[in-house]
Amino acid sequence: MQEPERLRQAAAAVQGRMPAGFRPRVGLTLGTGLSGLASKIQVKARVPYAEIPGLPVSTVQSHQGELVLGSLGGVAVAALAGRFHLYEGYSPLEVVRGVRLLAELGVEAMVFTCAAGGLDPAMQAGRVMLIKDHINLTGQNPLTGPNFDAWGERFPDMSQPYDPGLLALARRAAQDQKITLYEGVYVGLRGPSMETPAETRMLRILGADAVGMSTVLEVIAARHRGLKVLACAAISNVNIPEDMQPAPIELVIENASKAGAGLEAIIAGVLAGMQGQ
Ligand code: HPA
């Protein structure tokens, strides 16, 4: 089965569970340790991934697997609580299927969250970095293969992947609420092994401010579909080549959760700002 048909079936399954008249405007993807945002949603329906044909069931214990439909900051949202990573063995098409499902349901924008390792020594774990650009070092691209013209172009532009209007709303929300907000370049790797000191040094030289194992493929798929994109990374650890420390998953989850409150407040502020537009 080709992806468009697969996505139509997935969307039909969700539409069958959606409250009458509900149409999500913004899609959210909740990263490691960041599922707290889902608890802020005034829930209208929850659809487990197992009931959505074509969506794999997430294998990482730190991710749930359900689509949460409801309202956040007065905006109708659809949140993917649980995402799919290349390191789990999923194909690039599977990694982005959730995002394409939300596009099929009619969202106009995607807000991605993720945990990431800081590469700027001035950073502190537990803070939030607005992703203003990215480097895809996964060696994969979800647009490989036949292009589905109804979705987007063969060679989608990536000169401005992160929406300037949404970035401005995020900066304003952080300023209004006195939340420290870094901004920088996120580099996406395939994982799952963490980086060596030499790799960490290389990533910094390449111009990255934070490193993670998600987000970049999903952003590419969202831009291909013409969705506006905002992405925020919770800095869960800081990697310094001369003084590398282990960053076990427990620490990543703990510190990402610490960043969670600020991140939730920023996203709520962005949604409130969008409501007026
Ligand atoms: N490296 C890669 N991915 C990550 C890290 C890291 O240090 N922290 C959280 N996700």
Structural account:
- The structure is a single chain.
- The protein starts with a helix and ends with a helix.
- It has a five-stranded mixed barrel.
- The protein has a single domain, classed as Nucleoside phosphorylase domain (Rossmann fold), CATH 3.40.50.1580.
- α5 packs across α8.
- The protein is globular, with a radius of gyration of 17 Å.
- It contains eight helices and nine strands.
- It is of the alpha/beta class.
- The mean pLDDT is 94.
- Bound molecules: hypoxanthine.
- Hypoxanthine binds next to β5, β8 and β9.
Question: TL;DR of this structure?
Answer:
The protein has 277 residues and is of the alpha/beta class.
Q: Going by CATH, what is the homologous superfamily?
A: Nucleoside phosphorylase domain
Please work out how many helical segments DSSP would assign.
Answer: 8
Q: Unreliable stretches, pLDDT < 50, 5 or more residues?
A: none
Q: Say which molecules are bound, naming each kind only once.
A: hypoxanthine
Architecture (CATH level 2) name: 3-Layer(aba) Sandwich
Index terms:
8 helices, 9 strands, 5-stranded mixed beta barrel, binds hypoxanthine, alpha/beta, 277 residues, 31% helix, Rossmann fold, globular
List the helices and strands and how they pair.
Blueprint: H1 3-15, E1 26-30, H2 36-39, E2 42-48, E3 66-72, E4 75-81, H3 92-95, H4 97-104, E5 109-118, E6 128-136, H5 164-176, E7 181-188, H6 197-205, E8 210-212, H7 216-224, E9 228-238, H8 249-275
Parallel strand pairs: 1-4, 1-5, 5-9, 6-7, 7-8
Antiparallel strand pairs: 2-3, 3-4, 5-8, 6-9
Helix pairs in contact: 1-4, 5-8
